[in-house]
Amino acid sequence: VGDPTSRVASPETSRRGIRESRTLTGPELLRLIEAVEAHAPRWYAEVYVAAFSGLRPGELYALRWSDIDEAERIIEVRRAHRRGVEGTTKTGAARRIGLSDTMLEVLRDHRARMLREQHPGLRKGLVFPSDKGTHRTPDALLNRLASLGERAGVTQRLGGQVLRRTFNTLALDAGVNPT
Q1: H-helix or E-strand containing 132?
Q2: What's the rounded Cα separation, in Å, for the pair 145 and 148?
């Protein structure tokens, strides 16, 4: 039996252009990115990619260098990391994210730093590993963003989901479908 709701149209709404709660404005996001670059440069690539890709925190921490295709200029999102286990994405489906010139350069610089320092995460191929080379947890980003948000003058509690919602909201505001 097919899905009976598939033929039902969504109701019309007058809520167009209403900002989702717990998102940053464009100027707030810019201040946050600048604060990360100035006060926590080791976290810059991580926060930048989270803010400008729409990746879920678990997807960000399961990202491997082999998922990044510089020639095609895409990130293939294939997996997520949750509660110590690497598995499929939340939806169970892989998806592709385009790489801008800036994001590609940020990732190249991040990898060069990891290679210079012979970061333990290189063995597993993780793009954003913990200092021990294992998967990082979303709490690590949450804790780091708390202090950086204060420096940037952002009053709301920050985390990976706030960055994801901000990306989606700003994309919609710009007339771009975030998917």
Answers
A1: none
A2: 5
Q: Strands of 68-69's sheet, edge to edge?
A: 68-69, 74-77, 95-98
Helix or strand run (H / E) with residue 113: helix 101-117
Nearest to 79 by CA among 58, 65, 99: 58
Helix (H) or strand (E) holding 176: none
Which residues are CB-neighbours of 113 under 8 A, at least 6 positions away?
Answer: 42, 119
For residue 117, give both structure tokens: 């320092």
Convert the pLDDT of each residue in 47-95 to its tens digit.
999 998 888 889 999 999 999 999 999 999 999 998 888 888 888 888 9
Environment class of residue 151 by beta-carbon count within 10 Å: exposed (0-12), middle (13-18) or buried (19+)? middle
Q: Report the alpha-carbon distance of residue 31 to residue 179 in Å, rounded.
A: 25
Distant-in-sequence, close-in-space partners of 36: CB < 8 Å, separation ≥ 6: 43, 44, 47, 48, 148
pTM (global) more than 0.85: no
Is the separation of the CB atoms in 59 and 135 below 8 Å? no
